[in-house]
Amino acid sequence: EGIAPPKRILFPPEKICMVWQQRQRAGAGLCNVGNTCFLNSVLQCLTYTPPLANYLLSREHSRACHQQGFCMMCIMEAHVNKVLHSPVSAILPLAVLKVFRRIGEHFQPGREEDAHDFLCCTVNAMQRACLSANNDLDLSSQSTTIVYQIFGGFLRSRVTCFSCEAISDSYEAFLDVPLDIKAASSLTAALEEFVTPEHLDGDNCFKCDK
Ligand SMILES: [Zn+2]
Ligand SMILES: [Zn+2]
Predict the structure, then answer these.
(1) CATH 3.90.70.10 is held by the domain 13-150
(2) How many A from CA of 156 to the centre of ligand 2?
(3) Residues whose Cβ atom is located within 5 A of ion ligand 2
(4) What does the domain layout of the chain look like in residue ranges?
(5) How far from 160 is each of 32, 93, 156, 168, CA to CA, in Å?
(6) Measured torsion, CA atoms of residues 15, 20, 26, 30, in degrees rounded to the nearest 10
(7) What mean pLDDT is reported for the chain?
(8) What's the pLDDT tens digit per position in 125-173?
């Protein structure tokens, strides 16, 4: 609806498994090497995202990856396998620390960075890695990577004119949804607040061309 169907399917949606495929005990913790708690917390969230972890544990990515040099999916695959198979209680996330500046050029080693910013940059880097061999894909096909299917989507903004009821839709691709969690009592409430219709007036008023 409103978005052209993809010309190519990069990852078949039926292969995405939302529940753990193998029983997992909690994996290793991550050592802080100085102001890296923002990085560790993001890595832990991603490691315990079952559809992503299932895929990375299968090592399907690296078996087919032809990327020369930096590939965030190869890095995450190595990290998740290390964390979830480690016999020790805490490890250094060395593979990720090594490519820290490639994940986001603005990141400064030793500086406390913003966890949300780091998450967005990491998910974006994973998405770029999934697309690496497919440079000239339409937007719709780009949304068929495993990363996009787990984290992404399309936001539809719909404006309805009160005088003639004309509808105008616009779509925007996203890999994260910014929610106001301070004001909300639950995630569901925050999502409901995010999609609550607004009455546009004043400077925001929609100029209907009909
Ligand atoms: Zn790779
Ligand atoms: Zn109108």
Answers:
(1) yes
(2) 19
(3) 161, 163-164, 166, 208, 210
(4) 13-150, 152-204
(5) 50, 49, 13, 6
(6) 20
(7) 90
(8) 999 999 987 878 998 999 999 999 999 999 999 988 887 888 889 999 9
